[in-house]
Amino acid sequence: MLSHQEGMMAELPEESSTREWKECPFCAEKISIRAKKCRFCGETIDVTLRLAEELKDKYQQELEKAKPDSTAAGNPVSGTMNGTVSASSYPMEQLNAFHVRKKRTTYILLGIFLGIWGAHNFYAGYNGRGTAQLLLTIFTGWLLLPLIPIMIWNIVEICVVNRDGDHELME
Predict the structure, then answer these.
(1) Which helix (H) or strand (E) holds 23?
(2) Cα–Cα distance between 23 and 30 in angstroms, integer?
(3) Three-state SS for 169?
(4) Angle between helical axes of 147-160 and 104-114 (0-180°, round to 10)
(5) In terms of C-beta distances under 8 Å and separation of at least 24 residues, what long-range contacts does 102-111 make, across chains too?
(6) Assuming Cys at both sites, which of 13, 47, 75, 153 could form a disulfide with 70, CB separation 3.0 to 4.6 Å?
(7) Are 38 and 27 in contact, with CB atoms under 8 Å apart?
(8) Are 153 and 159 in contact (CB under 8 A)?
(9) Contact status, residue 25 vs residue 38, Cβ threshold 8 Å
């Protein structure tokens, strides 16, 4: 049986094929040119993969800060591996890193001009309300009389609603 040193020496390239091997910048061992990770030290060699891992680690730290006790919040912890939180253990709405804040003036203008079709509710993320207003307008709008309650509904929403569908305050 070969010792660890002899086994590594057997895997080293011959001098004639130096084009297929490079030196790991972290441990100075010879590795394949196509290697994405060093087989000796485990460091990531590929720049894009390294950046992706750093972003993933940073995002996991932010999730852990936001949800320090995941069992109390009712989130499953079955997606953890080696004590780290995996992205599959959180609902999709928590994985959305960028939330675009809605503007209240846009909401009001959509409610004034396109309110009977529910455009302002679709904009704010209230898809159920928007669908209800759209269907009511399509199926009863030709009678004209049912449009009056829908218009009153719009006026009330324009005056009262100040949060979007994600319960974030509108600007």
Answers:
(1) strand 21-23
(2) 5
(3) strand
(4) 170
(5) 102/164, 102/168, 102/170, 102/171, 103/170, 103/171, 104/162, 104/170, 104/171, 107/158, 107/161, 107/170, 108/158, 111/154, 111/157, 111/158
(6) 75
(7) yes
(8) no
(9) no
Most confident of the ranges 9-13, 18-22, 38-42, 86-90: 38-42
Report pLDDT digits (tens) over 145-166.
Answer: 888 999 999 999 999 999 998 8
Cα(48)–Cα(26) distance, integer angstroms: 17
H-helix or E-strand spanning residue 32: strand 30-32
How far, in Å, CA of 35 to CA of 12, rounded? 14
Q: Are 107 and 161 in contact (CB under 8 A)?
A: yes
Angle, helices 127-140 vs 147-160, to 10°: value is: 160
Distance CA 47, CA 29 (A): 18
Between these two residues, 68 and 104, which has the higher pLDDT value?
104
124, amino acid identity: A
Of the candidates 36, 29, 12, 31, the one whose C-alpha atom is nearest the C-alpha of residue 21 is 31
CB 117 within 8 A of CB 140: no
**Alpha-carbon span 60 to 80, nearest angstrom:** 11
